[in-house]
Amino acid sequence: MEIVKNKTKNAEYEKRARALVAQMTLEEKAFQMVNSAPAIERLGIKAYNWWNEALHGVARAGTATVFPQAISLAATFDEDFIEEVADAVSTEGRAKFNAQQKFEDFDIYKGLTFWSPNVNIFRDPRWGRGHETFGEDPYLTSRLGVRYVEGLQGHDEKYLKTAACAKHFAVHSGPEDLRHEFDAKASVQDMYETYLPAFRACVQEAGVEAVMGAYNRTNGEPCCGSKTLLQDILREEWGFQGHVVSDCWAIKDFHGGHGVTAGPEESVAMAVNHGCDLNCGELFLYVADAVRKGNIKEERVDEALVHLFMTRMKLGLFEEKEKTPYDDIPYTAVDSEKMQELNLRAAEKCMVLLKNENNLLPLDKSEIRTLGIIGPNANNRKALVGNYEGTASRYYTIAEGIQEYVGHDVRVLVSEGCHLYRQQISNLSMGKDRDSEVKAVCEASDVVILCLGLDSGLEGEEGDQGNQYASGDKPDLNLPGRQQEILEIACASGKPVVLVLLSGSALAVGWADEHVPAILQGWYPGAQGGRAVARVLFGDKNPEGRLPVTFYRTTEELPDFTDYSMQGRTYRYMQTEALYPFGYGLSYTRFVYKNASLSAKVVGADGITVKVTVSNQGDRDGMETVQVYVKADQAGTPNPQLKGIRKVFLKAGESQEVAVTLSISAFALYDERGVNRVAAGTYFVFVGGTQPDRRSEVLTGQKVLQCCVDVENALVL
Question: How is residue 155 annotated by DSSP?
């Protein structure tokens, strides 16, 4: 970020912040360290609430464009597009802020400090908050996390557009119902190889303004008061210059859940002394007493406040109106036609075609007289948005999107089919209360669209109202309730069935893979999701999404949920065969890879460049996701790992040479001491439209191309 490089401007902000803090009383300082910071009129400081959310759009503050959930955006594998979406989100954030300030509204969710993105690794598909992340891969999460931060914060030399926050630092991915007391035990190797890279990238590449600590402990230390994480790694090793905020009410967990302190004052002292600057909650009001008792030095309090006020100054909150380039963004920018167009494009790009037997898709409207749409997610708005969502001015469910698309040309029959998770829809029924309707719709239809899966009531954050499983996590990977039965009824009808899955995580749909001719993974596709599904099903949009997570065959093949060792987890370490592998996704056209080559036989200090010719040999234009994987030819090393991505659009019959440069770090692996080493020896470089595993080859009918390169001398990075 340019603002980080502007040392002169940063020095000015620091000088102004220190002068401001020096004028505050100890009590005033303490009150400025909680999320709802009051005004200090004598110093010209307005009230400010730090708590705002923008995971996939401005959340919880009224109308805003509701983009696809983060896991959905990850399925695009498109770095440039992720920044475009984040820039749109920050535009709406500024537009709403400008209006709120005009009318002196300083409430929660009304600031410019957005606690997004979530760059935790989705290590286990049962984790309820996994759909907030960019998936299971540290490289993909790093690239998308960096670009989301850059989109939120902007590229102005002097001012931040909004302030981003990388969360939850670190080693945080469930179980949700244990998070206030859980100790995530991870090896140093797993820490640096898997759990930390995305945070490091956000700090060192994107200049993220804030980092949020996690609820849990990591290797014995509460994350929001961890000397190892907040001081040794974040500040000293990575050179972080922004502010650290606790997760909400996490400080009280030090004594109430983790039992590492005796009470509130001791918890506050641990958090502040080890680097936490801002408390989401109210416990930091104890800071003044802790200073008086000698448990916290006032110099450390001043340091925290300098971090906080520098952020507010970078946002232009201490400048005269219209001094920053963002003060004139009007409220009419919110949920505008331009935003809706971008949202539709985002939803289309995230769709992943998992199966398309005998080219059932795309559907031909002219050959369909009656279309059946069945399932609890057919008209479920909640299945569009995920969590941490805003309020759209208009939603399009799958049924609504298809009905709009086909108009009066096709008769559409809709049935809820079954409840999302209960055994019956009506409380007074004897069960199976829509089975006859499902059979009738199937009998009358030429094609059946089956809409199954989950919504954010079944997977989400601990404590979310309406969460059927209470904790937020899933107990297993199966379709809940009677959805599997409805699926089998539809397939038994003999009619062509298209399964559309809406979920924020992988589901075990092995039966569907064997019996359903076409399967589309739609994720939580945002307010325009139904229109996007329709455009993909009928071929107006060629599907381009790729899986950012592994789809497992059964729950039983997963390691214990509480085990944070990466052994056996994700595509990088699993030894079993996936149902649908990470990086996989089909198209309506056929992309062929030829002539893979490397720029050198030996990896140099500047890395190496992979070149490959990609041809669209089908009859439809389409976007291809070129993926590059690296594997050390050494026992005990991970499976091939994603190290490069390129998106390329090819018209039917067109070919293009694609070049991807791999830095020397693409060949490095961390050892058990956390040292990043490039070992001497041979490395395999794979390039293709998916990862180089046997299952992907079976599903796509194509082999990923392979090259070999040597590293002559071992290197420590």
Answer: -
